[in-house]
Amino acid sequence: MVKRVFISIDMEGISGIVDWSEVDRNNSEYVFARKLMAGDLNAAIKGALDAGVKEIVVSDAHGGMRNLRPEEVHEAAHLVRGSPKPGAMMEGIDDTFDAAMYVGYHSMKGTSNGIMCHTISGRAIDGIWINSRETGEFGLNSGTAGVHGVPSVFLAGDYAATVEANAFVPGITTAAVKWAVGRYSAKCLHPNESTKLITAKVKEALTKPLPEPRVVNEPVEVKLLFNTSTMCDLASLMPSFERIDGRNMKGNFNDYKTAINAMRAAIYLAGAAERR
Ligand SMILES: [Zn+2]
Predict the structure, then answer these.
(1) Mean pLDDT of all residues in the chain?
(2) Residue 232 burial (CB < 10 Å; 0-12/13-18/19+)?
(3) Residue 274: its pLDDT value, please?
(4) Known catalytic membership, residue 118
């Protein structure tokens, strides 16, 4: 019986949202988008409660990680918010959870018909390979859940994100809330319908046999492709990485957590580079 659930919630895969302007807190469009985000989250929480879950921790995982208004989140959940946080999109997960869920998720950079597809940093990163497999945010974060022995059981997002989730975790339950027809355009379910779907699918995910935790083989090779060579100039100052060429570098790490932390530190460094 699933008692403790961890939820990581991003914004690009939330019901009805199709454009960067809607996920940017400095834009007036963001006001309605963060309400839709709370709607998808509360639908997932309702599904978990329907399945008998007793404890829910939610990690706000988009941008500055202060997108959810605390008073709009279902009172059954504890909310982890603010940035930077050590575990980033997965801050709050530990070995005591029975299941991890992902809401508002999007596909990796370069996915065709993937709404606002990107990997960690749209500005700095063109691609991330873990042990030679190109990996997006769901793949990276489900690996972190796996380090704690926690299975990734549910994802809601655009259709491309659900396809990606199934490729990384066979048997995961998913809810597609929109179908992209381009990177910034999609056919969307009405939020009243998508939230009903999320509630039903979460309940289903938590009451059927759970998939195995996703365990990434160690040692771990991380390869990063940056948008510009200046970004790689800066990121390759990290001692554990070796430069491959203008925009690529790679490093080997004994364990997954160290690999992910080194990857994040490298991306932060790259963020100090020029914007062109
Ligand atoms: Zn995001």
Answers:
(1) 97
(2) buried
(3) 76
(4) yes
